[in-house]
């Protein structure tokens, strides 16, 4: 079985080398869809022998991810973000999965976390894949690096994402930043963690938060969220407060120390910031 590793990137020179190093020994091909990078991203990709496809950088970044999926030639596709790292243990499990070996999750606590996480996603977004047939896609749990450590509580872990898919059996609808891939077949889980270096610094976190609040503001506009009355109260006060309480106390974010506190606070602030951007854009 051939494995394609694909990424959609834009100005990722600081991340791309470590990402590609982590997969260069398992990838039969590397496909990079570049959204017009102005740094050394393309040159780095070419050093690893990647096939680079140059295009624009749409705000709906799933569009370029879908282009990368379509360009892949392997039997299986591992699609990553540049700030993700594949560990040796995960490499081994990916190789077993694409060969058709059954993946057993021996840690009961992990298994329950995975089941609960997937149910939460399906409650929000609808059923993912089917209950019968062959496995054509795998969720991979992610360990998120934030303020000097990995977040293991606060509702962050397992942060599972569908990352390993069979060619032709998965696609991005490209309608929402929060959407899940559409899967033709059954979905399973790998148990080894994917390292996610999304926020090595707080400034990086704020930069990403700015991007995601802007995307949420656009979704508010599509949904025609009212700019008055109960909506103001909900998004400016209720949602940030309940989000903080849920992440910090119910999901035990306090066990992650100060980083867990900061994560809970700023996760709650996502809603008023997005709502204020929506308000501003709506009046512009």
TrEMBL record:
Pfam families: Glycos_transf_2. Residues 4-102 form the Glycosyltransferase 2-like domain. The chain crosses the membrane at residues 228-249, 261-279. Keywords: Membrane, Transmembrane, Transmembrane helix. InterPro entries: Glyco_trans_2-like, Nucleotide-diphossugar_trans. This is Glycosyltransferase 2-like domain-containing protein. It comes from Candidatus Buchananbacteria bacterium RIFCSPHIGHO2_01_FULL_47_11b.
